[in-house]
Design brief:
Elements (H helix, E strand, L loop, with lengths): L2 E3 L13 E3 H12 L26 H20 L3 E13 L4 E10 L4 E10 L2
Antiparallel strand pairs: 1-2, 3-4, 4-5
C-alpha cells in the first residue's frame, strides 16, 4: 500500500516526518491534484487546478474546469492502476451566501477494490 508525507508537513513523535498511508494518502493525493497549485518548486508545476476559482466559485465555468481536471487526473490514476472515478456519483452543492462550491463523488481504489467517498469544498478568496 502506498505511503506518503503528511500534508501539512509535521513531525512524528520520534522527530522524523509524519507520514500517511492507505485511504488517508489517497485522499491527500486527490486533494493535492484539485488544489490551487500554489508552489515555488520549479519541478512540480501544474499539479493542481490553479487559482482561478478563488475569484468566483459560483461561475458555471468553474465547474467545467474542475470536471475537466477530474477527468485528466483520474485518467492518469486509472492508467497507473490506482483509482477509478465513478462519474455517475458526482454531485455539486452551491452555497452562494458563503461563496462555496462543494464537490462530492465516489471512486474505487483499484488496489483494494474498495469504494471510497471524496468531498472537497472550494471557497472564494
Amino acid at each position: 500500500m502506498a505511503k506518503g508525507l503528511a500534508i501539512p508537513m509535521r513531525a512524528n513523535p520520534r522527530g522524523g516526518f509524519a507520514t500517511v498511508d492507505g485511504e488517508d494518502n489517497d485522499q491527500k493525493i486527490i486533494h493535492t491534484a484539485l488544489g490551487d497549485d500554489d508552489n515555488e518548486n520549479a519541478f512540480q508545476q501544474d499539479i493542481g487546478l490553479g487559482g482561478f476559482m478563488i475569484f468566483n466559485v459560483m461561475d458555471p465555468g468553474v465547474r467545467a474546469r474542475i470536471y475537466q481536471r477530474l477527468e485528466q487526473i483520474f485518467g492518469r490514476f486509472q492508467a497507473q492502476s490506482r483509482y477509478k472515478m465513478l462519474r455517475s456519483t458526482i454531485e455539486w452543492t452551491e452555497d452562494s451566501v458563503e461563496q462555496e462550491l462543494t464537490l462530492q463523488f465516489r471512486y474505487v481504489n483499484l488496489e483494494t477494490d474498495e469504494e471510497v467517498e471524496f468531498r472537497k469544498t472550494f471557497s472564494a478568496g
